[in-house]
Structures are given as C-alpha cells and as structure tokens.
UniProtKB/TrEMBL annotation:
Gene Ontology molecular function: any one: magnesium ion binding
Domain of life: Bacteria
Protein name: 2-succinyl-5-enolpyruvyl-6-hydroxy-3-cyclohexene-1-carboxylate synthase
Domain Menaquinone biosynthesis protein MenD middle: 220-402
Gene name linked to the record: menD
SUPFAM superfamilies in alphabetical order: DHS-like NAD/FAD-binding domain, Thiamin diphosphate-binding fold (THDP-binding)
EC number: 2.2.1.9
Length: 574
C-alpha cells in the first residue's frame, strides 16, 4: 500500500481545498480512490451505483452547498456515463471534480476489460483535463500528482466556475493488505490561489454611469441565476427609483415584482418595448418569444455581465462584456447615480413611460392568467396545467423548486413564483436535457434541510428513475409527477403536432405509473386523477410524514393540449 500513498493524499488535498462530499460508483479499478475518499474523516462519501445518476446528484449537491463535490468511478464506459452531468455543470458553471480510474496506457486497446480511451474524454465540456502517471515511486511523480490536483481544484473554483477532470491510471494491487493502516499525510500540499478582484477602471465606470443617465429606455434582463437577496434588493430599488424595468423568469430568482409574463404577451407589435440599452445578467432564458423579440428589435447597446472570456451573444446585439459580479455592479450603479442626483440637485424622476409600457402589458397578462384559472373547470377537463397552478400557489415559503425540462419548466414559467415566498428555483437549463432532472433534485434534497419539490413529466421521470436507486433519499424530497403517458410537449409544438409519426415516434406513449417504483424506493405514493379532492391531496402531499413523497397526476394528453392551446389563444383575444 505504500506505493499508493500519493493516491491517499489526493483525498487529503481535496479536503484541504474545500471538498467535503464525494459520490462514488462501485468498481475495482477505482478501489484505491474509493478507500481514500471513504476513509477520510473530513469527507462524507456516498455510494451510488449508476454513474449518470451519481453525477447529477453531485451536481444538485454542489448547487446547494456552493462548494465542489467529487464524483469517482472505475475505468471504461463508467466514465462516459458522467458526460451528461459534466456538460450540464459546464454550462451552469458548477464545480464538479471528476475522478476517473484508468488502466495504464500500455493496456489500452489490448482486448483487456473495462478499457477505453479516457484521456480528454469530456472534451470542451470541462475547464481542463488532467492526467497523472501510473507509477508513484519517484518523487517527481508525487510532485506531479499534488501539482495537478491543486491546479484542478483551483481552476474549478475560479470564476467562471466549472467541472474539471482528473484521469488516474492505477496498477494492481488495488486493496490494502489485511490490517494495513490507511494514513493521510498532513504534509500533502495545498497550493492556494488568491481570489482575483474584478474592478473596472475609473474611466470605464464613468462612461457606464454617463450612458445609464443619458438613456431613457433601459431594460435589465435576468437569465438563470442563483437566489441572492442582496441583489434582489438593489434591483428593486433601481426599478422603483430609477424607473428601469427588470425582467426575470421562473429560473431567474430575481426575488422582486418584475416583468415575468413576457412569454405570454410578446409576439405582436412589440416596437414600443424596444430598449436602447439592454443590460443582461445570468445564463439562459426560457422564453423563445423573448429571444425572438430582442433579435428583431435589437438594442442600440447591450451590456452583459459575465466572468470568463467566452463571448456570449444570445440576442445578436452585444456591444460590451463587463467582467464584474451583478451585485457589485448594480450596487455601485445605484449608489453613484443616486449620489449624482443629490449632488446636482437633479431630483426629478427618470421618465417612467418606458417602464409603464412594459408593466401595462405585464399586468394585463397577470390578470388574464388569474381569470383563466378561475374558470369553472369540470371534472372531465381535469388537466396538468391547473394542477401545477394549484401546486405552485401552495408551495411553502423558503422551499426549493426543481423544474424538469420539456413542458414542466414552461408551465411553471407561465404561472410564475411569488417573490415574497423566497422560493429558490432550479432547472438543468445548461443543456436543457431531461436525463438527470430527478437525480439533481435528489442531490439538492440530500444537501439541505429545506423542503425540495420537483415538478417532472413522465418521460423525464422514468428516464431517470435510477435517481431513486440509492440509500440516501431524504424525507424532505417531494416529487410531483405529471403523467400524461407520453411526451406531451410534442402536441403543442407546431412541427411534430401535425405529423403522422407523432404518437409512434415523438410522444413516447407508455402506460407506466410510479406506484411500484415508489414501493421499491420506500417513497410515500399519492395519486390524483380528477379535480375532486385535488386540494386535499396536495395538502396531504406537502405534510411531513418522515418519508419522501411522490404525487402522481394522471391526465389525458389530448385534454392537456386543448387546455394549453385555449390558454395561449385566449390571451390574443383579450
């Protein structure tokens, strides 16, 4: 075991650099890494057999904990199963630490088991890949291992954060001798990297302030973003005192009374809504209508706040990248403009006309949404859109909501989340795949005491039900399963909805339900398939019973489609 001491020291370095959690998938080649992570007193290790699920669980944990989480697997195809979560982490800027065991290079493509080309296996979807040598006896090998692990961790936590990959070839023997003591060396090096401070020059900042003061039509748009109470407060002040509208979506977590129903009211003559200056923060936007609007009515200037060098021009109008945090930027912006107004005695408000135009349409859309759901639904028109409205209104304060991709996140975006409830919303919108939505929510629930609610469709749920195949499901997990027995989104998209192949090749028609899955996973199961008793079952679902719960909403895809089309068409007629 002495020759594997540098492998043991990997766990020590990881812990010194802030790693407290590891998700390990069982295997033989990664046994030395498993032993190192499982026996380290400062690392909480969990065993999850399905590598794809394990990686998404780690992603959900890292989002919540705001710290790097390790995933570790054996050699061969196991590593490839990490790929969907690694890609999601890359585009969401989440610091996953990917440790893959490997065979020594001379055994690749020699008809030996569990051997593939693992070097750089994740391509551009990691910030950087590292590989250590297979022999650890020489002092230079020890130096290279420590240097590589330090480099990887420092890079993962440098803005913009993201996943890193360390490939680790290992020779036999993999296991310690009987009664052999496993020790972690306190001398394992921790090479620190001081966090950089991003500041603009005085000249650049003066130019920004002058442009904001001179612009009468400014729009602040927030893409996917973490919940940040301090940022919400300053954006609320800017919107209220400077009459600059703030636009956000369900996944933006803006935490204020902002423009949020734009996906409903955009799409007609939107010329009056065109901003001269667009300031964007965060990552992706859900609304295709919003992206289409800004690509058609391009802002004269578009500033995007981001770290990193990648040029992201979602709206085809980018004029300036500003590498500072949104909180620092808007806090200083508010303070400096407020002071400038006081110093110059110019206490007149910015003309509220532009803000008023946006909010007039916003309020019209809000009233329409409320009136639509106040209609007297009959039992036979039971539908998932109504259920989601009731469910989201009943979410407890300070809880978490995870939205699966496809229709779930779009339904929720139309309905919205009450800002005063301080509900943080998560969704895998980095790649917008359905493959790890359940696992990500499980990871979140494992890493917080808050109630964690997942809204998920049937295809996404059954695709990822291995998320429930582990020993760690916590009692704060609540899953709302929208089971319309197929991919309902394809009935509301113009293209596939008109094809003869719709049912056989797009919808994924299936007759499954989740009752037996819940029995296997020891999850409390509740089912609803009509309007009668819906509220009672939703209330029962929210209560704490000491076990995770799943509420299955059984609906008809044809009815759902008709209701949703009525919803969209009805607003145009208002």
């Amino acid at each position: 075991m002495a020759l594997l001491q540098p492998i043991l020291n990997i766990a020590e370095i990881l812990h010194k650099k802030g790693v407290n959690h590891a998700l390990i998938s069982p295997g033989s080649r990664n046994a030395p890494l498993t032993i190192a992570l499982a026996r380290h007193p400062g690392i909480q290790a969990k065993s999850v057999s399905d590598e794809r699920s394990a990686a998404f669980i780690a992603l959900g944990m890292s989002q919540n904990l705001k710290e790097p989480v390790v995933i570790c697997c054996t050699s061969g195809s196991a590593a490839y199963n990490y790929a969907p979560a690694v890609a999601e982490a890359f585009f969401q800027e989440i610091p996953l630490i990917v440790l893959t065991a490997d065979r020594p290079k001379e055994w690749i493509h020699q008809h030996d088991g569990q051997t593939i080309y693992q070097t750089d296996i994740f391509g551009k979807h990691v910030k950087q890949s590292f590989e250590i040598g297979a022999d650890y006896s020489h002092p230079d090998s020890v130096w290279q291992i420590e240097r590589s692990v330090n480099h990887a961790l420092n890079l993962a936590m440098t803005e913009p954060k993201g996943p890193v990959h360390i490939n680790i070839p290992l020779r036999e023997p993999f296991y310690p001798l009987e009664n052999e003591e496993v020790r972690f060396s306190p001398r394992a090096r921790d090479i620190k990297r001081i966090k950089p401070v991003f500041q603009l020059s005085k000249e650049d900042w003066t130019e920004i302030i002058e442009k904001v003061i001179d612009s009468s039509r400014i729009l602040i748009a927030v893409g996917q973003e973490e919940l940040n109470s301090a940022l919400s407060e300053v954006l609320a002040k800017i919107q209220e005192e400077f009459n600059i509208p703030v636009l956000g979506e369900a996944i933006s977590n803006v935490g204020l009374d902002s423009i949020s129903k734009h996906d409903l009211f955009l799409g007609g003559d939107d010329s009056l809504l065109k901003p001269d200056l667009l300031i964007t923060i965060g990552k992706s936007f859900i609304s295709k209508s919003f992206k289409t609007f800004l690509r058609k009515y391009k802002a004269e200037e578009h500033w995007h706040l981001q770290y990193g060098d990648h040029l992201i021009d979602t709206f085809q109008s980018l004029t300036q990248i500003i590498p500072v945090s949104p909180l620092d930027f808007f806090s200083k912006l508010f303070a400096d403009i407020d002071y400038d107004n006081f110093r110059n005695g110019d206490m007149e408000e910015r003309d509220p006309e532009f803000k008023n135009i946006w909010f007039e349409r916003e309020l019209k859309a809000r009233k329409y949404v409320e009136s639509f759901f106040q209609a007297d639904f009959k039992t036979e028109s039971f539908n998932e859109f109504l259920v989601i409205k009731q469910f989201m209104e009943g979410l407890p304060d300070n809880s978490q909501l995870h939205l699966a991709n496809s229709l779930s996140v779009r339904y929720a975006n139309y309905i919205g989340v009450e800002a005063k409830k301080k509900i943080e919303v998560f969704a895998n919108r980095g790649t917008s795949g359905i493959d790890g939505c359940v696992s990500t929510a499980v990871g979140a629930a494992i890493s917080t005491k808050k109630p964690v609610f997942l809204l998920v469709g049937d295809v996404a749920f059954f695709y990822d039900r291995n998320a429930l195949w582990n020993r760690y499901l916590p009692e704060n997990l609540r899953i709302v399963l929208l089971n319309n027995h197929g991919g309902g989104i394809f009935r509301v998209i113009d293209g596939p909805s008109k094809l003869q192949e719709l049912e056989d090749y797009f919808e994924t028609v299936q007759s499954y339900n989740a009752e037996k899955t819940c029995q296997d996973a020891d999850i409390e199961y509740v089912k609803v398939n009509n309007n009668e008793g819906l509220m009672a079952k939703l209330s029962l679902f929210a209560e704490n019973s000491g076990k995770p719960k799943l509420l299955e909403v059984d609906t008809d895809s044809l009815v759902n489609t008709e209701i949703f089309k009525q919803f969209k068409a009805g607003f145009k007629a208002v």
